[in-house]
Design brief:
The protein has 224 residues and is of the alpha/beta class. It has 4 helices and 15 strands. The N and C termini lie far apart (42 Å).
Length: 224
């Protein structure tokens, strides 16, 4: 099957709202996709799907909520700000090269509690059937925190990408740790999953101190 390849194209901002809906089957090279929205707020089975998609040397940002990403690869992408996919799930998604500031989030706080809970339960069911969710082994970040993804399903470079255990963080005495390490303990305690990944981002000016903080948690047996 011939794939669709689109190069050097600026896409106008577009709002894609609602589920079920499926997008993908295309390679985007040196394209710009900014200012748009890809969202749904009611389907905890994640019928809004992005699949079989690659982005290379693109510029991208926008609002993401309630999306299922499957078989997606992203290499060398720029963004005007932090990318914060909320209530999104991932299966076989690979990030490599330069990746913008990234933080996965739970369902939006303005939604009713029962809807937020439904999204979390739906994500847990989804990940029960996933062998791996995200591969960040070859990604270089300026910032990254992935509390919204089960840590054991993230393929990572253990040199700078740390697996934190929630139960060990909960049992740990924060005294004796640096302020940065204590903040990571708090993140792990709040994680919806037993494990989460926190990255010491190589492209951050705070890389050395962040790496030291995370290494201290590894030494204490809280991180791997």
């Amino acid at each position: 099957m011939t794939r669709t390849v689109i190069t050097d194209t600026v896409f106008p901002p577009e709002k894609v709202i609602g589920s079920p809906r499926s997008l993908g089957g295309v390679d985007l090279v040196r394209c710009t996709l900014t200012g748009g929205s890809l969202v749904q707020y009611e389907d905890a089975e994640f019928g809004l799907s992005v699949h079989d998609l690659s982005l290379r040397d693109c510029r991208a940002d926008g609002v993401l909520h309630g999306v299922r990403f499957s078989d997606v690869s992203v290499h060398d992408v720029a963004s005007g700000g932090r990318i914060t996919p909320a209530a999104c799930v991932f299966r076989h998604v690979t990030l490599s090269g330069r990746i913008p500031r990234l933080m996965t989030l739970p369902a939006h706080h303005s939604l009713p509690p029962e809807v937020r809970e439904a999204f979390q339960k739906g994500a847990e069911r989804f990940y029960d059937e996933v062998d791996w969710a995200l591969d960040i082994t070859a990604a270089t970040f300026s910032e990254a925190e992935l509390s919204g993804i089960p840590g054991h399903l993230v393929r990572r470079d253990p040199e700078t990408q740390f697996l934190l255990h929630r139960d060990r963080a909960e049992a740990a005495d924060p005294e004796g740790f640096s302020r940065g390490a204590r903040s990571y303990l708090t993140s792990a305690r709040r994680s919806p999953y037993p494990t989460m990944v926190i990255v010491a981002p190589r492209r951050s000016r705070y890389f050395t101190s962040m790496l030291e903080d995370l290494e201290s948690l590894r030494t204490a047996g809280i991180a791997a």
